[in-house]
Amino acid sequence: MIDATFGFVLLAWALAGASPGPATLSIAGAAMQQGRISGLATASGVLAGSVTWGIAAAFGMSAIMLAHGRLVEIIRYIGAGYLLFLGLKAARSALQDKPMKIGTINEASVSRHFLKGFLIHITNPKAIFALGAMFAVVMPPGSGIQDILTALFLLFLVSAIVFLSYGLLFSTSGAIAIYVRLRRWIEGGFAAMFGYAGFKILTSRLV
Fold first, then answer.
1. How many domains does the chain have?
2. I need a surface site. Which of 31, 100, 153, 203 has the fewest CB within 10 A?
3. Is the model's pTM score more than 0.90?
4. Membrane-spanning residues where (predicted)?
């Protein structure tokens, strides 16, 4: 049964989700570079990845992955490689001295941003272990399916608020104006942070 303690878990979940990381950086970058629709599309992709891992963790996938270390390693290398690729793209953009243009939004570009957000989250194996550990704390043995689904809904509601807020906040005219003025510095910062995140996934213990 979900009790008042779960409120503190939700608060911690919100703070963790809002802290700078590959997912929030990708949302902010898309919003500043391509506008609100792209930022929200990226946020929706990140949320979809979070939902996927959350459902998997709630129904024991994290335990299965713990028993199959090779699967974790495969996801680790794919995720690290993707983050390093994004870092390289940001570095190349930072080195190019060209005027900033807000891209034209179409169905294909929205799909690309959604897929980018989804891949950033789904290729991070640390996400499912964090969710699995959290469920172990808040869901006592014998918890019913209704409690599990309620916990999932509340967690994803908090995630949606955090990620979509990033997309809205960084797509404001003020945020875009700052990006246009400081584009090369911001892209350089993105390159460094994506590269660092990829390196950390490669070198840190996941379990």
1. 1
2. 203
3. no
4. 43-67, 74-91, 118-139, 151-179
Instruction: Classify residue 126: in a domain, yes or no.
Output: yes
Q: What is the DSSP string of the chain?
A: ---THHHHHHHHHHHHHHSSSHHHHHHHHHHHHH-HHHHHHHHHHHHHHHHHHHHHHHTTHHHHHHH-HHHHHHHHHHHHHHHHHHHHHHHHHHH------PPPP-HHHHHHHHHHHHHHHHT-HHHHHHHHHHHHHHS-TT--HHHHHHHHHHHHHHHHHHHHHHHHHTTSHHHHHHHHHTHHHHHHHHHHHHHHHHHHHHHS---
d(CA 183, CA 100): 8
Residue 195 lies in a domain: yes
Tell me which range, 43-47, 90-94, 181-185, is most confidently predicted by mean pLDDT.
43-47
Instruction: Count CB-CB contacts under 10 A for residue 122.
Output: 22
Nearest to 29 by CA among 119, 90, 91: 90
Question: What contacts 165, CB < 8 A, 6 or more positions away?
Answer: none
Q: Which domain holds residue 184?
A: 22-203
Whether 117 contacts 44, CB under 8 Å? yes
Amino acid making up residue 121: H
CA distance 32 to 190: 12
Q: Give 126-158 pLDDT, tens digit per residue.
A: 776 777 666 666 666 666 778 778 888 888 899
